[in-house]
From TrEMBL:
Gene Ontology annotations for the cellular component aspect, listed alphabetically: membrane
Keywords associated with the record: Membrane, Symport, Transmembrane, Transmembrane helix, Transport
Transmembrane portions of the chain: 12-36, 148-166, 186-204
Signal peptide: none
Basic and acidic residues bias spans: 225-242
Positions of region (Disordered): 225-256
Compartments, record wording: Membrane
Biological processes, Gene Ontology terms: monoatomic anion transport
InterPro entries, per database record: MFS_Na/Anion_cotransporter, MFS_trans_sf
GO MF terms, alphabetically ordered: symporter activity
Membrane topology value: Multi-pass membrane protein
Name of the featured protein: Membrane transporter
Species whose genome carries this gene: Oryctes borbonicus
Length: 256
């Protein structure tokens, strides 16, 4: 217990990668609270769909979310281990799949009128892709920290949960009469929240251990890793220049 590193609160606050994770979590949670928590109400009050007679169909989306999470985890691990994709690229790609794609399918469903089965299908596809975030943004904390991943999870989840207070107010303002047209506006707001929070994550997310995670006795390890990365980047740059030089010589042909 005495060797436990001190919590680097200032490092947390000034890390753009952590803020990218927090903003992505807020966007994700807002869409979950708005859509998942209110989907039964939307079916019954707006589409006048009988949930009692179609309980199996209305529960299908939640089963799809579970399946999406089960598939995404092993698939993401396999592609990373086979070096088909970097960890960072994987986190960004799969987070996008679990953020923008679901909101897009829900938006499409909002314009399908009162066709309950089609709307449920769109919502099922939404939650299938929503499940993939558990192999992306939801594990990004582990990429950033060895010692404080749990605290990072608490920060992002805690701030994300605050959107649960905003979501009902958004619905009350945009859909006071529970009409289809009003809910279409709600779906556009959800899509916007998903898109812009994901855009921030794409530009600023990180997937490597952060400097503040290294205690003083391990800082030499951090510096060594940075030197190795710098050397590898320089070598890659030199190799690229050599290839361009060789190509130019080949294109010029043998000298007279």
């Amino acid at each position: 217990m005495g060797n436990r590193p001190k919590i680097p609160w200032l490092g947390f606050l000034t890390d753009i990668g952590l803020w990218a994770l927090v903003i992505s979590e807020v966007g994700h949670d807002f869409t979950v609270f708005t859509l998942v928590n209110n989907f039964p109400k939307y079916l019954s009050d707006v589409l006048h769909y009988d949930l009692a007679e179609n309980s199996l169909a209305s529960s299908l989306p939640y089963l799809c979310q579970w399946i999406g999470g089960l598939i995404a985890g092993p698939l993401v691990d396999y592609t990373i281990k086979k070096k088909c994709i970097t960890i960072l690229a994987s986190r960004r790609l799969v987070t996008s799949m679990g953020s923008v794609l679901p909101a897009t399918f829900v938006l499409i469903g909002g314009y399908m009128g009162c066709n309950g089965p089609l709307v449920i299908t769109m919502f099922a596809i939404n939650l299938f892709f929503k499940g993939t975030v558990y192999a992306a943004m939801k594990v990004n904390h582990l990429d950033m920290s060895v010692h404080f991943a749990g605290i990072l999870m608490a920060i992002s989840n805690g701030l994300g949960a605050l959107s649960g207070y905003v979501s009902p107010e958004v619905i009350n303002v945009l859909a006071p009469n529970n009409t289809l047209e009003e809910w279409q506006n709600v779906f556009w707001v959800v899509w916007g929240a998903a898109f812009f929070s994901n855009l921030f994550y794409i530009f600023f997310s990180v997937a490597e251990r952060r400097k503040w995670d290294y205690p003083p006795e391990e800082i030499d390890q951090y510096n060594k890793l940075q030197d190795e990365k710098k050397a590898a980047k320089e070598k890659k740059k030199q190799d690229k220049l050599e290839k361009k030089k060789k190509k130019a010589q080949d294109d010029a042909g043998p000298s007279a």
